[in-house]
Amino acid sequence: MDIATFNQILGIAFEKRVSDIHFEVDNPPLFRARGHLIKSKLKNLTKKDTEFIANTVMQQSNRNLPEDVTEFDTSYTLSNVGRFRVSIFRQRGNIGIVMRVIPHHIGNFKELNLPPILGKIVQAPNGLILVTGPTGNGKSTTLASMIRFINENFNYNIITIEDPIEFVFSSEKSCIIQREVGLDTESFHSALRAAMRMDPDLIMVGEMRDLETIDACIKAAETGHLVLSTLHTHNAASTINRIIAYFPQQAQEVIRNRLADILVATVSLRLVVNKTGDNLIPVVEVMSTTSTIKACIRDGRFDEIEEYIEKGSDEYNMQTFDQHLIQLCKKDIISLEEAKRISRSTDLERKIVYY
């Protein structure tokens, strides 16, 4: 492996619109395209090849790969091509790398097939907005589109705290400061503490990974700022449950009340294959915290939240996963089989007929 070959592989990834590239010893480079992992026709990688790739990535940010590295996240930029989020890890004693392709263009809500209600949600003057879903299902892309909307329409001071920085923004109407954990700051928590002294209107935290970061995000929202972040949860109810579960048992009632006061909305995502098999499109659950849902959060009645999301579809433009799946099926965008694969409901077919 040399730099020319490495860069050529990365260029192919952009050209073929793949989402991820895998580099592992004893395998050729693998590409994930439209949800499927595809082996390239290149030769198998050696230990020296993956170490070369990892060192090349690290050197771009003037860092050396530690000899005892077990896992490390960073980013890589290929001039005139694009950016990658990079996960370096050790497996069976060898170095492996997965590189997530970050598109040049930050799509708007229409381009990304996201519900336009996100534009209204992100106009909240303060509070906490959470984008959730499994890994690789569009959380970062959705956050970026929300930041784009603010940047194009409002004069905000926006601070992003990321590990690593993914989409790179140019300030338009807003001023955007982007800080990377490990390069510009020690941790999410320390960067959040510093952000409070940087005159922020909006703070975007790449991921709420631990209790310290979650508590700092809640405090920032309570002090009059708008905070956007992500969690690896499936829907609104599991998101609220996960946050509360981070806190000690004796503090959970207080946290339920604090969360009910500051949670603006949750946006939960799953990517599905369209009917032609050519593209992945998002299925989106949207929950806005109405007074009824606030009461559910305070009382711990999380199992009732989905019902109130469904009832609030007309008045508040909320939607459950099943409601969105039904829309996509009726518009002939996705197949019934794909909808049933994603849905947790056992009677989705009956709902389609009913609605």
Structure, briefly:
With 355 residues, this protein is α/β, with parallel strands linked by helices.
How far the N terminus sits from the C terminus, by CA atoms, comes to 56 Å
The largest β sheet comes out as: 7 strands, mixed
Number of strands: 13
Uncertain segments are none
- Overall tally of structural domains: 2
CATH architecture of the largest domain: 3-Layer(aba) Sandwich
Q: How are the strands of the biggest sheet laid out side by side?
A: 9-8-10-11-7-12-13
Radius of gyration: 21 Å
Globally, the shape reads globular
Counting helices, strands and paired strands, the structural category is alpha/beta
Instruction: List the total number of helices.
Output: 14
Features:
Beta-Lactamase; 7-stranded mixed sheet; alpha/beta; 6-stranded antiparallel sheet; globular
Describe the protein.
- The structure is a single chain.
- The protein has 355 residues and is α/β, with parallel strands linked by helices.
- The chain has two domains: 3-102, Beta-Lactamase; 117-319, Rossmann fold, CATH 3.40.50.300.
- The chain contains 14 helices and 13 strands.
- It has helices spanning 3-15, 47-60, 117-121, 139-153, 188-195, 211-222, 236-245, 252-262, 291-299, 305-311, 313-316, 321-330, 336-342, 348-354; strands at 20-23, 30-33, 36-39, 71-78, 82-91, 94-102, 127-132, 157-162, 175-180, 202-205, 226-231, 263-273, 280-288.
- The strands form two sheets. It has a seven-stranded mixed beta sheet with strand order 9-8-10-11-7-12-13, with helices on both faces.
- Helix 5 packs parallel to helix 6.
